[in-house]
Amino acid sequence: MIQRKRNSRPTYEVNSEEPTSQNYYPVNSQILIKGDSEELAVLVDRSQGGSSLKDGCLELMLHRRLLDDDSFGVGEALNEHAYGTGLVAVGKHQILLGQDITKDKKEKAMEMFYEPLIVFQKNAEQKGLIPKQS
Asked: pLDDT tens digits, residue range 85-95?
């Protein structure tokens, strides 16, 4: 994991015009904050944005949807639809809290990453995708 420090960059001065967006980072597998004696980690099963904008707080952007253009260059609202309704991403989150959660974090991350995906297809036998049952 890459350690991030709020309102700080190692290679340039931070411009505080956008304090929220400049402190959001991609979260590909987990986000973690550490206190004096405990740690809080959230494991995710898909990439999303995350931040800790205040001490002791952690947030993840589950859905990014704008009904109006934000005037940052795209020229349209971020309001995707499918089947007459707004798109919804369904994901899983594991929350871990404790003094030394490194081992638990690794085990839970492996469980989430290697969770089996069961897929069925209609007429798979007829299409020759699986052996015919006798």
From this structure: 887 778 899 99
Contacting residues for 42 by C-beta, under 8 A, at least 6 apart = 27, 30, 31, 32, 50, 58, 60, 93, 94, 95, 96
Torsion angles phi and psi, residue 42, rounded to 5: -125, 120
Residue that is written with structure tokens 């897929």 in the block: 119
Note the pLDDT tens digit of each residue in 5-39.
Answer: 888 888 888 877 888 888 889 999 999 999 899 99
Q: Using alpha carbons only, what angle is made at residue 110 by residues 108 and 112, rounded to the nearest 5 degrees?
A: 70
Q: Which two tokens stand for residue 60?
A: 């993840």
CA distance linking residue 94 with residue 44, whole number of Å: 7
Sort 134 into a burial class: Cβ within 10 Å, 0-12 / 13-18 / 19+. Answer: exposed
Neighbours of 67 (CB within 10 A): 8
* Full-model pTM: 0.72
